[in-house]
Structures are given as C-alpha cells and as structure tokens.
Design a protein that fits this description.
The chain is α+β, with helices and mostly antiparallel strands. Helices cover 33% and strands 20% of the residues. The protein starts with 14 loop residues before the first strand and ends with a helix.
Length: 459
C-alpha cells in the first residue's frame, strides 16, 4: 500500500532566509506551503530566490500533482523558531504532521521540514453517513478527480450479493480512447499475494505441507543454506523471513528473461538472509516467489495452473490470470505512470508475466467474487481464513493485510507500482466488500478506498 507523501521521503535541511528580526517560523512555513500549492513557476522561483531551499519545487511536482497540495488543518505547536502543523492533502483525506524549524529567531538559516503520517484525529473526523450515501459521494469524488486527470478506474461496493456501487471513469487505453468499464482488466500488483496465500493454506489443509516446514524441504538444493534451513513457510507468509526483495538493478537488467518462478530463484537464490527469520516484518516479494515454488513442489502443478484450477474456477473468476505481456488480453488496460508532467505507458517497467508475488491482472467484479468465495468458505476452511485474516506480524496476516477496529475491522490487500494501484477490503462483521482498481500511479485507488472507509457506517 504507497501514498503521495511517502514519495516525499525527504527532510529539508538548512536553507537561507531573509534577515528579519521578528522572523517567525509560521510565516516562512506558510510561504512554503503557498508556493508549493500554487504550482506557479514564477511564485516558486521567487520563493527559491528569497529562501534558497535545498530541494527545488520542480522535484516535488509529482507529489504536488498527486496530493493537490496541502491544507493546514490546524497548528499543534507554534513558537518563534518552530511550528508543528497537521496538513491534509487536497485530493485525499490523508493527514500528515509537518514539523518546521528555524535555527533561531534571528537567524537567516532554516532548520528542517519533516513529515510523518498520523491517524486522523478525532477533531478532524469525517462524518459517517448511510452506506448508499457514502457510495454516492465516492462516485462523485471519482468523477471530480477524473475531470482533473487525477483518477481513472473502477470502484465496487457490495454487501453480500447486493452491489451498492459500481462506477467506472477514465480510459483503459488513452491512445485508443477505450473507456474503463467494470469488466476492464487491471494489473493488480501485490494483490496476487492473496491468491498465493490461499494456495498455501489449501495445501496445508490437505496435509501436503505444514506452515512450520522450511524452504529446504521443498527446494532441497537451495544454495543459500541459512535460507533453506531457517526460513519457514509461516515466515514467508508474514514477511518475517528476511529473504529480501526482487526489485533493483538485477531485476531491471534481466526483466524480460525472468519468465518462470525458477528463473527468479536462480537469480536470487545465492543471497544470504538479510535478517534472522521470525522476528521482524520486512516486506519481501522474493518470499512470495518462494511460496509460489513451494506451491509447485507440494502440489505437483505449475503455480499458474494451481491458482487457476483451485482458486479462480471455484470462485467464478473468469477474467483473472497472469498471462505474459506478449500475449493479447483484449480487455487488459494500459498502465500509465506520471513522468515529466505527463501520463506515460508503464510498459518498460513490467515483468514478463505476473508471479506469485504480484503483477497479474483481474477485474473489480472478479475480485468481488474472490471476496465472496472466501466468506462463503469455498476456498478456505473457517480456521485457515481466521488465521490468514488476523494480525500475525504487525498488521499483516498470512498473505493478507488487516486494519480497522470494531465493525470496521477488515482484511484484504493493496497493490501498487508505477501505472497500477488497487485495493480489496473485506469487512467480515458487516459483510461489506470494497474493491477499487486504477491504471494510474499509487495512491489514487487507495485514496478512493480510504475515502469510503472514513464515511461508511461503523455500526
């Protein structure tokens, strides 16, 4: 799950300020916010000339575009040299705490601006409304953002078999002017991890594996012995295996050569553990590659055949798969990433095909069917679903993210990469399901999901 503030990922260090005896941190801070929000090159250049910030506004354009700028919700602390403020993105309900400081009241030097996510405080709470109204508001929000070129995608809200909202906006292919519909297939990023988890837990229910088995039991020739002997299946399911990621220079060098799960294993299998298994959550795409290999070894089927036969078919998911990018999938959308102020196809970033870690494709309707099949017990026993959907490591279960409290407690998964963003949230107490998919950068689908989450009834 990626937010536009996460893309900031920076701290503004020392910068020059004009010499005013009565200089206040709040004045400079609000001047920075005003220049950032404006998107006006002349105003930003004037600010940079006056204050010499270490990072130019041009480098923050993607953040400004996605966030729409910031609104100062309220000040937490105000002193001559320091302010702490709660900011909300204009294009979402995201709240961050910004801390801005000067070296001292008389200095021309500026201290740091730092940002951190915070839960929405009670005094800034959004009013909850009836479910149908919340769904209508979300559809209106999607329409407004689409007109600003800030969203393209589809959202479904359902309770049981009743669909309350099914709304699609934007283009699946901008060049061909092909509109998005509820049947458009979107690349879903890490949402594939749910399918991999279900496959592993099915095999566990069948006695074909144990969550306490090690990697080496299924890949006996695994070259990194600490991985083979120490990492258990449950570690991989909870991202506590210490097995590292797959994305980096090696991936992009061999992107089109990585065609099978074994290809990934051959490329990364000699790496030692990054940390001792079982103690620390550290998101690991490679861990889910290994889970896919274990599915193959334990079932005697290819990973792709297994999830198709044992998950997609029983759930009635006819539009979900991981066929290679070289194969024609007529309803698959083009993904668009923001580069140089324009939406550009993400084709040069895509793997050859989706994997057990992510990168496949689905539709909002198919993901609703997946959620309904889970809740109906068609895919997992109640015991295994309960284990998968409750926190095991932090807020992560077995291949499912968790969140919320009370009637709004939910599980599911997000997916995000350049040109793709998706969310599935299942609220077991109410039977509510939210699916949002987009063929634009994160966090655009996540923002719509959170918009709904803050407004749906909590009882």
């Amino acid at each position: 799950m990626i937010n536009s503030m996460a893309r900031l990922g920076w701290v503004l260090c020392v910068a020059s300020l004009p010499a005013f005896a009565d200089l206040q941190a709040r004045q400079v801070f609000e001047s920075w916010i005003d220049a950032f929000n404006s998107g006006d090159a002349a105003k930003q250049s004037a600010f940079e000339a006056a204050h010499s910030p270490p990072r130019k506004f041009a480098t923050l354009e993607r953040t400004r575009f996605a966030s729409g700028g910031f609104i100062v919700a309220r000040y937490v602390k105000e002193e001559p040299t320091t302010v702490v403020a709660l900011l909300q993105e204009k294009n979402s309900d995201t709240v961050v705490e910004a801390t801005f400081s000067l070296a001292d009241a008389q200095s021309e030097k500026m201290g740091a601006i730092t940002f951190r996510f915070v839960p929405r405080p009670a005094d800034l709470a959004v009013s909850r409304v009836p479910l149908e109204e919340a769904a209508s508001l979300a559809a209106q929000r999607m329409d407004v953002l689409a007109k600003q070129d800030l969203f393209a995608g589809v959202a479904i809200v359902a309770r049981g078999d009743k669909v309350i909202l099914e709304h699609a906006v934007g283009y699946a292919d901008r060049e061909a002017k092909r509109p998005i519909t509820p049947d458009t297939q979107f690349r879903i990023g890490s949402m594939n991890k749910m399918f991999t988890s279900v496959a592993i837990l099915q095999l566990a229910d069948q006695g074909k594996l144990s969550l306490d088995d090690t990697v080496g039991k299924y890949i006996p020739d695994y070259p990194a012995k600490d991985v083979a002997t120490k990492v258990k299946i449950r570690h991989l399911l909870t991202h506590t295996g210490g097995t590292g990621d797959i994305f980096g220079p090696a991936f992009f060098e061999h992107r089109l050569e990585l065609r099978t799960l074994d290809d990934y294993y051959k490329l990364y299998g000699t790496r030692a553990l990054e940390r001792e298994p079982g103690y620390e959550f550290h998101y690991s795409n490679y861990g889910f590659i290994l889970l896919g290999l274990i599915v193959e070894r334990a079932s005697g089927m290819s990973y792709y055949d297994y999830v198709r036969e044992k998950i997609f078919v029983p759930a009635g998911m006819t539009a979900t798969d991981s066929l290679p990018e070289t194969e024609s999938v007529p309803r698959r959308s083009v993904g668009y990433m923001r580069r140089d102020g324009q939406w550009q196809p993400n084709s040069e970033t895509l793997p050859w095909r989706g994997t057990s870690a992510g990168g496949g494709y689905s539709t909002a309707r198919d993901l609703l069917k997946f959620a309904q099949a889970l809740q109906a017990g068609k895919l997992l026993s109640k015991e295994k679903l309960a284990q998968a959907s409750k926190p095991q490591s932090g807020l992560y279960g077995f291949g499912f993210s968790t969140g919320g409290t009370g009637a709004l407690q939910h599980y599911g998964h997000a997916g995000g990469a350049p040109g793709m963003n998706g969310e599935l949230r299942i609220y077991p107490e109410s039977g509510l399901v939210i699916v949002v998919l987009s063929n634009l950068d994160p966090p655009l689908a996540t923002n719509i999901t959170n918009f709904l989450d803050l407004r749906i009834p909590d009882r």
